[in-house]
Amino acid sequence: MTREKFLVVLFLGFIAIVLSLPQQSKSKRPIPVFKQPKIGGLLLPDNATLIRENIVDTFSCQNRIYGYYADMENECQVFHVCLPQTRGSIRWSFICPAETVFNQATFVCTQTESSIPCEDSEKYYVLNEEIGKEIEEEEEADQELGKENTTKISELETVSKKSFSKNSKLLNRERLFRRN
């Protein structure tokens, strides 16, 4: 009997030790790997040099409004998002996928042949001033469209309620017919 008590105490001690060990949660999401390049403060994915060799970091967000900016020094394959702060500014940098460039006119990476010439990008920096602006005419048109959609939705609800009540009446008739 002492042997059984010894085994029980040993087993409980083992359980207590296992439960006292720290548990690590395993994330199902892969963690993106970024490396700090030797050049300035650009923080780009590891494969950035496969897309473009010799990435230079000369772009500055100093005295720029919030917006998206093509990096002409990197032939528009890199673009930056600038966020002015009370003291300086914050800059996020991105690289376009292989065989694409940042199109300053549309704020997206596009094929080189369907993009504006990279050297003209600075002319389009003023488009950043339009970010967040509301145009009164479009706003009024949106309101009118909203009113029309609300009317159409209420009409559809009325039609669906009618068809639902017809369907339920038909189902009730069918049930009665089956009983007889």
UniProtKB/TrEMBL annotation:
<protein>
    <recommendedName>
        <fullName>Chitin-binding type-2 domain-containing protein</fullName>
    </recommendedName>
</protein>
<keyword id="KW-0732">Signal</keyword>
<dbReference type="InterPro" id="IPR052976">
    <property type="entry name" value="Scoloptoxin-like"/>
</dbReference>
<feature type="signal peptide">
    <location>
        <begin position="1"/>
        <end position="20"/>
    </location>
</feature>
<dbReference type="Pfam" id="PF01607">
    <property type="entry name" value="CBM_14"/>
</dbReference>
<feature type="domain" description="Chitin-binding type-2">
    <location>
        <begin position="58"/>
        <end position="120"/>
    </location>
</feature>
<dbReference type="GO" id="GO:0008061">
    <property type="term" value="F:chitin binding"/>
</dbReference>
<dbReference type="InterPro" id="IPR036508">
    <property type="entry name" value="Chitin-bd_dom_sf"/>
</dbReference>
<dbReference type="GO" id="GO:0005576">
    <property type="term" value="C:extracellular region"/>
</dbReference>
<dbReference type="InterPro" id="IPR002557">
    <property type="entry name" value="Chitin-bd_dom"/>
</dbReference>
